[in-house]
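Retro notes, structure queue

What went well: the backlog is down to a handful. What didn't: a couple of records were mislabeled last round, so from now on we paste the full input next to the output in the thread. Example, using Phosphoserine aminotransferase from Candidatus Mediterraneibacter caccavium:
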Amino acid sequence: MSRVYNFSAGPAVLPEEVLKEAAAEMLDYNGTGMSVMEMSHRSKAFEEIITTAEQDLRDLMGIPDNYKVLFLQGGASQQFAMIPMNLMKNRVADYIITGQWAKKAAKEAEKYGKVNRIASSEDKTFSYIPDCSDLPVSEDADYVYICENNTIYGTKFKELPDTKGKTLVADVSSCFLSEPVDVTKYGVIYGGVQKNIGPAGVVIVIIREDLITEDVLPGTPTMLTYKTHADAKSLYNTPPAYGIYICGKVFKWIKAQGGLEAMKEKNEKKAKVLYDFLDQSRLFKGTVEKKDRSLMNVPFVTGDADLDAKFVKEAKAAGLENLKGHRSVGGMRASIYNAMPYEGVVALVEFMKKFEEENQ
Ligand SMILES: Cc1ncc(COP(=O)(O)O)c(C=O)c1O
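Corresponding output:
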């Protein structure tokens, strides 16, 4: 067996310890004589898996009691609709447009009400986070929406926007559990887990209780109503059980690493190796304004599309996989999520140095 360093933006690298544990338990989970995949979601064993997973997530993020944790399906994209359907009481919402995912979310919300795009960084190909200290927040906005870490462009909100008292909704798909977070600043935090937490098929929604009501937009399906899942503790129907089990293992792994403070430290150390190299390189260039750089997704270019393609190809041959940038921006992107080891980033930088020397 040989594993590569996988820089995919998602689905992405998971901790090897977690994968090994899951492999060892594949045929017989904890003396049950069956795999978690084969198990009733109403069984005692699964009940313990999901309640432990929720508690560990609560511990890691310091989630207060007045927030519910929901394990749902449909990916992050389904939340683009579920959020307005459940939260748009006045049928008005403000969106901050920092990339394709926020753009898609805003477009979807437009099906349900008025969407005000109160800030955007599209003028410079989303290479920065706009100043959000004094936004024209709409008086009747039901919420203000952000995509906190922009997977495609490699930017991250270092400071949350001043929402002037309005509920903040954040897509944290690509920065979930990468650093400590003050949950009380948000009304809703959600993310697909397939980047930092587990296999695709699970989306986690952390939502303040007062936002969970029966008063949703007319025609909202039962399955797309937060209250359905909150009341049933994520067991209204068959949940993505195996995915939740892996998420639970990743929560334990993060706890064993020292929690979110330690995760942040490790992520900063990893990202620094790459950014420091980019800042002095004669060939490669980071594409993001320094102050807004993501710890998770690092886009870079040579400025020559053919050379970029050569780099991606040769990196792959050297065991450094999935470095091609998003199809909408080109160039390269290294996603260095929690489970990417420090050694992986060092190996990437060593390879970049060698490539630079060979391609002067
Ligand atoms: C920030 C962000 N939001 C949303 C999505 C969409 O996620 P999904 O494919 O789970 O719908 C992605 C996917 O890469 C993402 O990076």
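Agreed that this is the format going forward. Reviewer comment attached to the example: The chain has nine helices and 14 strands.
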